[in-house]
Write a structure and sequence with these properties.
Elements: H1 11-15, H2 20-29, H3 41-54, H4 60-67, H5 70-75, H6 86-95, H7 98-113, H8 118-123, E1 126-135, E2 145-147, E3 150-159, E4 164-170, H9 178-191, E5 199-202, H10 209-217, E6 221-226, E7 232-237, E8 250-267, E9 273-279, E10 284-291, E11 298-303, H11 310-318, H12 321-332, H13 344-368, H14 372-395, H15 399-403
Parallel strand pairs: 1-5, 5-6
Antiparallel strand pairs: 1-3, 2-3, 3-4, 6-11, 7-8, 8-9, 8-10, 10-11
Length: 405
């Protein structure tokens, strides 16, 4: 029973969206349980989910202690006599079939997405796409991006305003550039969203006019912020006498259809690379606005949408901040800033498990109209309350029976 009477949804209802039948089905139809005597897929799923919720600083050692805790075994109906060591967890993360966890993530996302009303769905067709980088502080990672002298991985994600709807892991050097990572994530998201009406919100990491041109050719609508004083040629001004200049926190200075220039890399006779300016003839929308608070600050936005007003475009771009808040949440509350495994497979498993737990907490937050930190705290409190209730029932009111003291 929930301890927060005003809540519309509790942890028991959320855990029910991960039925035993789903885990059993995926266990049978993936390779997750090959060569595993103790840490089968279902047990690893429960262990990682519980570990992420219960530990501020998750590690393989804390996962070992968690699995051997009788309270954990009680919650998920596991054999009290089983035990594991840290080395077993490390090896299992490196070899377990990550598609098992990916399919659970996708299934849960699909279930939660169906809960949106048609009206609410219209409000959430803004897809925020951004990246965050996590470095290996131990220096033991064999592959990864270079980040301040350390190996690192890049998580590039799409966020629909409530839930993370796509995630990519990049380790190849080429993806250090957001001009490679962000378009790849957008294209991968579109593959799973046939007939979409999404508008993709991208930060200043996307600067390549060629990428923007590719979006237009693929009929992908985007809104991005570009560097100030970008070179362009104006084709048609869109501001009229009736166009409001007030954009809330901004003042509209320009709204035009333009062609943007791009830099073409050219190698000279000495082998050095320089860039030659070239005009891209694809039309784009250019909106320039000035901050009311700091009049020396200008914001330049570009888009291939010519129907929305300047107000609607700048308001939409402000919603991009939602993914920054989401990144802060999973880093501070779900341990993403620390790598539990340095193996690519283990990293994928941990990412999918983090997103699964994040979705549970975010739906709890959304349904109960509370903040991120409050949702995580209350979610964990309800889980402990559920465990206590189970122990009381199991022991007939005598905890010593359960703990065998």
């Amino acid at each position: 029973m929930t301890i927060f009477k005003e809540h519309k949804i509790d942890i028991k209802q959320l855990l029910d969206v991960i039925p035993e039948a789903l885990l059993s089905h995926l266990s049978a139809h993936t390779k997750v349980d090959y060569y595993s005597k103790t840490l089968q897929g279902k047990k690893m799923f429960y262990l990682l989910m519980y570990g992420l919720l219960e530990n501020d600083r998750l590690s393989q050692r804390t996962l070992e202690d968690t699995f051997n805790d009788p309270v954990f075994k009680m919650l998920f109906n596991l054999d009290q006599d089983e035990s594991i060591r840290r080395s077993s967890i490390s090896e299992r993360l490196s070899k377990i079939d990550s598609s098992f966890f990916k399919q659970i993530y996708e299934c849960i996302y699909d279930q939660f997405s169906e809960l949106y009303s048609s009206c609410e769905g219209q409000k959430h067709n803004l897809i925020r796409v951004d990246s965050t980088i996590v470095s290996d502080v131990s220096g033991k990672m064999s592959e990864g991006l270079e980040n301040n002298g350390r190996k690192a991985i890049k998580y590039t994600m799409a966020f629909d305003g409530i839930l993370p709807c796509l995630s990519e892991i990049f380790t190849a050097p080429a993806y250090s550039s957001e001009d490679n990572a962000l378009p790849q994530a957008v294209l991968n998201h579109i593959k799973q969203e046939v007939g979409h009406q999404n508008i993709y919100l991208l930060d200043r990491g996307l600067q390549s006019t060629r990428n923007m041109q590719s979006f237009s050719k693929e009929k992908i609508t985007f809104i991005a912020r570009i560097k100030e004083n970008r070179k362009y040629e104006e084709l048609e001004p869109l501001i009229t006498d009736k166009t409001p200049a007030d954009l809330g926190t901004l003042v509209l200075l320009k709204d035009s259809i333009v062609n943007l220039y791009t830099g073409i890399p050219v190698k000279n006779k000495k082998g050095n690379i320089h860039h030659r300016e070239e005009l891209v003839t694809e039309p784009f929308r250019l909106i320039i606005a000035r901050s009311k608070e700091d009049q020396s600050k200008e914001y330049w936005f570009t888009s291939n949408d010519f129907e929305l007003s300047a107000q609607e475009i700048t308001d939409a771009y402000k919603r991009r901040w939602d993914i920054e808040v989401f990144f802060r949440f999973i880093k501070q509350e779900l341990n993403v800033r620390h790598l539990i495994s340095l193996n690519r497979n283990g990293i994928e498993v941990m990412l999918y498990m983090t997103l699964i737990v994040a979705m549970l907490v975010l739906i709890y937050k959304h349904a109960n109209n509370i903040g991120y930190k409050t949702a995580k705290r209350r979610f964990t409190m309800e889980m402990r309350n559920l465990i206590i209730s189970m122990i009381v029932v199991e022991c007939g009111g005598d905890p010593a029976i359960f703990f065998k003291t």
